[in-house]
Amino acid sequence: QVQLVESGGGLVQAGGSLRLSCAASGRAFSSVTMGWFRQAPGKEREFVARIARSGSTYYADSAKGRFTISRDNAENTVYLQMSSLNPEDTAVYYCATPVLPGTWGGRYYWGQGTQVTVSS
């Protein structure tokens, strides 16, 4: 059974930084794409970033230049380093991996989420 456990969220002032972590278990971590999504209050869940098994990355426009996704296959962990945070980044951040390895855009396994709050 695939399990994803996020950590690292919290309260930070505008302009600050946070690093989120997602520990994965239950599948061959190094062979799958991992990603981050977020959901702000009253809004739909949106894509933030993903990293393929090759290490190639893709970001939402809102994350480009400020967020960096990385992975440590030895630790089965994916990270999201966030900098220059602003109040619009306030959301619950979710780690995700596709149910079908090698795909993206279908069904995902989700973590429980970690709250990020950016104060102005």
Explain this structure:
With 120 residues, the chain is mostly beta strands. Helix content is 0%, strand content 51%. It has no helices and 11 strands. It has strands at 3-7, 10-13, 18-25, 34-39, 46-51, 57-59, 67-72, 77-82, 91-98, 108-110, 114-119. Strands 2, 4, 5, 6, 9, 10 and 11 form a 7-stranded mixed sheet that branches. A 4-stranded antiparallel sheet has the order 1-3-8-7, with no helix packed on it. The chain is globular, with a radius of gyration of 13 Å. It starts with a strand and ends with a strand. The relative contact order is 0.31.
Short description:
The protein has 120 residues and is mainly beta. It has strands at residues 3-7, 10-13, 18-25, 34-39, 46-51, 57-59, 67-72, 77-82, 91-98, 108-110, 114-119.
The low-pLDDT segments are: none
| SS element count, helices | 0
Radius of gyration equals 13 Å
Q: What would the principal axes of the Cα set say about the shape?
A: globular
Keyword list:
120 residues; four-stranded antiparallel beta sheet
Task: Annotate the secondary structure layout.
Blueprint: E1 3-7, E2 10-13, E3 18-25, E4 34-39, E5 46-51, E6 57-59, E7 67-72, E8 77-82, E9 91-98, E10 108-110, E11 114-119
Parallel strand pairs: 2-11
Antiparallel strand pairs: 1-3, 3-8, 4-5, 4-9, 5-6, 7-8, 9-10, 9-11
